[in-house]
Amino acid sequence: MKKVFLSLPMKGRTDEAIQETITKMEDFVKIFYPNETIEFMHNFNPLITKEIERINASQPNMIKKEPLWYLSYAIKQMAQCDIFVQIDDYIGEWNYKGVIAECQLARDYGIKILKLPDNDGYFLPDIKAEADEAASKFREPAPNKGRDVSNAPSVGIK
């Protein structure tokens, strides 16, 4: 049996959109491991939210950074997994700190990583426009600062 952790952005997304992404990721992973029994793990769990609400009600301001509380659950699950699955594009890399932390931990601790391509927004259609806008800031060419480079020699790699 393979234990697979699914890393996906959640901040600002509806429960329905998150569940849709999880289902699509699970279906895609099953293609890679058709003869395996797979246990999927992820950090989307209403019980975690209820725990945070309960703690905050009984001990106000105890949890100062809720995203870290969620990340602690992800780390516990990652410690059990054989494979780490992320959506491979600029969305997680630029906008979601939890996704960035999970990816780095998977690399640092030698967990096998499977990257699912999402160039067309298949996995994250609800945030694709926002992500495209954010990513465009990183794709703009550097300004040439007024220097004329039209006659500069071209450089090729051989």
Features:
Rossmann fold, globular, disordered C terminus, about 160 residues, alpha/beta, about 45% helix
Per CATH, the class reads Alpha Beta
| Low-confidence regions | 149-158
Q: Profile the largest sheet.
A: 4 strands, parallel
Q: Would you tell me the structural class of the helices and strands?
A: alpha/beta
CATH topology: Rossmann fold
Order of helices and strands: EHEHHEHHEH
Radius of gyration: 20 Å
Number of helices: 6
Strand order of the largest sheet: 2-1-3-4
Q: Estimate the strand proportion.
A: 5-15%
Fold blueprint:
Layout: E1 2-7, H1 15-32, E2 38-41, H2 46-58, H3 66-78, E3 83-88, H4 90-95, H5 97-108, E4 112-117, H6 128-139
Parallel strand pairs: 1-2, 1-3, 3-4
Could you give a short description of this structure?
Helix content is 47%, strand content 14%.
